[in-house]
Amino acid sequence: MDMIDIADAAELLPRLVDRAAAGAEIVIGQAGRPVARLVPLAKRAAPRPLGLYAGQVEVGPDFDDPLPEGFAG
């Protein structure tokens, strides 16, 4: 786990993101104290199946009607 100062992180962000995407964990510090962590996103184990909520969700016939006057503020 590497710690890098926030001022340096701003300049090196593209490289830090590449390192995190490759699996590295980077800690960003300010005044010598850790304040944030840059980590890779977790990958989904399996794609979501299509039709997961088939038959459970209903779209009303007025779905795309205009909103009532004053509704959107």
Helix content: 10-25%
How are helices and strands ordered from N to C? Answer: EHEE
Counted beta strands: 3
CATH class of the domain at 2-38, named Alpha Beta
Estimate what percentage of residues fall within beta strands: 15-25%
Give a quick account of the main beta sheet: strands, pairing sense, barrel closure. Answer: 3 strands, mixed
Global outline: elongated
Task: Indicate the mean pLDDT.
Answer: 90
Terminal CA distance reads 48 Å
Q: How would you portray this structure in words?
A:
It is a single chain. The chain starts with a strand and ends in a 35-residue tail after the last strand. A three-stranded mixed β-sheet has the order 1-2-3, with helices on one face. It contains one helix and three strands. The protein has a domain at 2-38: 3-Layer(aba) Sandwich (YefM-like fold). The protein has one helix at 6-21; strands at residues 2-5, 26-30, 33-38. It is an alpha+beta fold and 73 residues long.
